[in-house]
Amino acid sequence: MLLTNMESMFERFVLMFIIARSYNHYNDLLVNNLATLNDTKNLKKMIKTRDNYLQYNLFVYSSNPVKHHKPTLFIAWDKMSNFYNINQMHHEVKSQVSDLIETIQNKRENMFNYCLSFIGITVALLSFIAAIK
Protein backbone atom coordinates (compact mmCIF):
# COMPACT_ATOMS: atom_id res chain seq x y z
CA MET A 1 0.00 0.00 0.00
CA LEU A 2 2.79 2.42 0.90
CA LEU A 3 4.59 1.61 -2.33
CA THR A 4 1.39 2.25 -4.31
CA ASN A 5 0.95 5.66 -2.64
CA MET A 6 4.58 6.52 -3.35
CA GLU A 7 4.21 5.47 -7.00
CA SER A 8 1.05 7.53 -7.28
CA MET A 9 2.79 10.53 -5.71
CA PHE A 10 5.76 10.08 -8.05
CA GLU A 11 3.41 10.02 -11.06
CA ARG A 12 1.80 13.24 -9.86
CA PHE A 13 5.20 14.91 -9.51
CA VAL A 14 6.16 13.76 -13.00
CA LEU A 15 2.88 15.13 -14.33
CA MET A 16 3.51 18.48 -12.61
CA PHE A 17 7.01 18.53 -14.11
CA ILE A 18 5.56 17.91 -17.58
CA ILE A 19 3.00 20.70 -17.08
CA ALA A 20 5.70 23.10 -15.89
CA ARG A 21 7.98 22.33 -18.82
CA SER A 22 5.04 22.59 -21.25
CA TYR A 23 4.17 26.04 -19.90
CA ASN A 24 7.78 27.14 -20.32
CA HIS A 25 8.03 25.67 -23.81
CA TYR A 26 4.87 27.40 -25.00
CA ASN A 27 5.94 30.69 -23.42
CA ASP A 28 9.31 30.37 -25.19
CA LEU A 29 7.53 29.79 -28.49
CA LEU A 30 5.37 32.86 -27.91
CA VAL A 31 8.35 35.04 -27.01
CA ASN A 32 10.17 33.94 -30.18
CA ASN A 33 7.04 34.49 -32.27
CA LEU A 34 6.51 37.94 -30.77
CA ALA A 35 10.14 38.82 -31.49
CA THR A 36 9.64 38.10 -35.19
CA LEU A 37 6.55 40.32 -35.29
CA ASN A 38 8.58 43.46 -34.58
CA ASP A 39 9.78 43.54 -38.16
CA THR A 40 6.61 42.40 -39.85
CA LYS A 41 3.93 44.62 -41.26
CA ASN A 42 1.44 41.78 -41.49
CA LEU A 43 -1.51 42.76 -39.33
CA LYS A 44 -3.22 39.37 -39.80
CA LYS A 45 -0.20 37.53 -38.36
CA MET A 46 -0.20 39.87 -35.36
CA ILE A 47 -3.90 39.28 -34.76
CA LYS A 48 -3.47 35.50 -35.07
CA THR A 49 -0.62 35.53 -32.54
CA ARG A 50 -2.70 37.60 -30.15
CA ASP A 51 -5.69 35.28 -30.52
CA ASN A 52 -3.53 32.18 -29.97
CA TYR A 53 -2.16 33.66 -26.76
CA LEU A 54 -5.59 34.66 -25.49
CA GLN A 55 -6.93 31.16 -26.14
CA TYR A 56 -3.95 29.63 -24.36
CA ASN A 57 -4.42 31.98 -21.44
CA LEU A 58 -8.13 31.23 -21.15
CA PHE A 59 -8.22 27.49 -21.75
CA VAL A 60 -4.79 26.07 -20.88
CA TYR A 61 -2.76 28.18 -18.48
CA SER A 62 -3.37 27.99 -14.76
CA SER A 63 -1.08 29.59 -12.21
CA ASN A 64 -1.71 26.57 -9.99
CA PRO A 65 -3.11 23.47 -11.74
CA VAL A 66 -3.13 21.50 -8.47
CA LYS A 67 -6.26 21.16 -6.36
CA HIS A 68 -6.05 22.99 -3.05
CA HIS A 69 -7.15 19.97 -1.03
CA LYS A 70 -3.83 18.27 -1.94
CA PRO A 71 -1.44 20.31 0.25
CA THR A 72 1.66 18.27 -0.58
CA LEU A 73 1.16 18.72 -4.30
CA PHE A 74 0.16 22.35 -3.84
CA ILE A 75 3.45 23.10 -2.07
CA ALA A 76 5.42 21.04 -4.58
CA TRP A 77 3.82 22.91 -7.50
CA ASP A 78 4.63 26.23 -5.88
CA LYS A 79 8.30 25.23 -5.56
CA MET A 80 8.41 23.86 -9.10
CA SER A 81 6.72 26.97 -10.47
CA ASN A 82 9.25 29.19 -8.71
CA PHE A 83 12.17 27.05 -9.89
CA TYR A 84 11.11 27.25 -13.54
CA ASN A 85 9.97 30.90 -13.28
CA ILE A 86 6.59 30.01 -14.76
CA ASN A 87 4.61 32.95 -13.37
CA GLN A 88 7.33 35.49 -14.17
CA MET A 89 7.62 34.21 -17.73
CA HIS A 90 3.84 34.22 -18.10
CA HIS A 91 3.67 37.86 -16.96
CA GLU A 92 6.47 38.78 -19.36
CA VAL A 93 4.64 37.21 -22.29
CA LYS A 94 1.39 38.81 -21.15
CA SER A 95 3.09 42.21 -21.13
CA GLN A 96 4.47 41.64 -24.63
CA VAL A 97 1.05 40.58 -25.91
CA SER A 98 -0.44 43.74 -24.37
CA ASP A 99 2.14 45.74 -26.33
CA LEU A 100 1.18 43.76 -29.43
CA ILE A 101 -2.49 44.59 -28.89
CA GLU A 102 -1.57 48.27 -28.62
CA THR A 103 0.45 48.01 -31.85
CA ILE A 104 -2.51 46.36 -33.61
CA GLN A 105 -4.82 49.14 -32.46
CA ASN A 106 -2.36 51.81 -33.61
CA LYS A 107 -2.01 50.16 -37.03
CA ARG A 108 -5.79 50.02 -37.41
CA GLU A 109 -6.12 53.68 -36.41
CA ASN A 110 -3.37 54.66 -38.84
CA MET A 111 -5.06 52.74 -41.67
CA PHE A 112 -8.38 54.41 -40.85
CA ASN A 113 -6.76 57.86 -40.70
CA TYR A 114 -4.98 57.20 -43.99
CA CYS A 115 -8.28 56.22 -45.64
CA LEU A 116 -10.00 59.33 -44.30
CA SER A 117 -7.12 61.52 -45.48
CA PHE A 118 -7.22 59.94 -48.92
CA ILE A 119 -10.99 60.49 -49.16
CA GLY A 120 -10.60 64.08 -47.95
CA ILE A 121 -7.87 64.85 -50.47
CA THR A 122 -9.86 63.22 -53.27
CA VAL A 123 -12.99 65.24 -52.44
CA ALA A 124 -10.91 68.43 -52.21
CA LEU A 125 -9.30 67.77 -55.60
CA LEU A 126 -12.65 66.99 -57.21
CA SER A 127 -14.13 70.16 -55.70
CA PHE A 128 -11.15 72.18 -56.93
CA ILE A 129 -11.44 70.72 -60.44
CA ALA A 130 -15.21 71.39 -60.46
CA ALA A 131 -14.61 74.99 -59.31
CA ILE A 132 -12.07 75.60 -62.08
CA LYS A 133 -14.41 74.34 -64.82
3D architecture notes:
The model has no long low-confidence stretch (mean pLDDT 82). α1 (2-37) packs parallel to α4 (86-132) and α2 packs antiparallel against α4 (86-132). The radius of gyration is 25 Å and the shape is rod-shaped. It has helices spanning 2-37, 43-59, 71-83, 86-132. With 133 residues, the chain is mostly helical. It has four helices and no strands. 9% of the residues are buried. The termini are far apart.
Global mean pLDDT: 82
Main beta sheet = none
Give the helix level as a range of percent: over 70%
Rg (CA only): 25 Å
Strand residue percentage: under 5%
What would the principal axes of the Cα set say about the shape? rod-shaped
Supply the number of helical segments: 4
Report low-confidence residues grouped into runs of 5 or more. Answer: none
Distance between the termini: 100 Å
Q: Would you tell me the structural class of the helices and strands?
A: mainly alpha
Q: Note the run of SSEs as H and E.
A: HHHH
What is the number of strand segments? Answer: 0
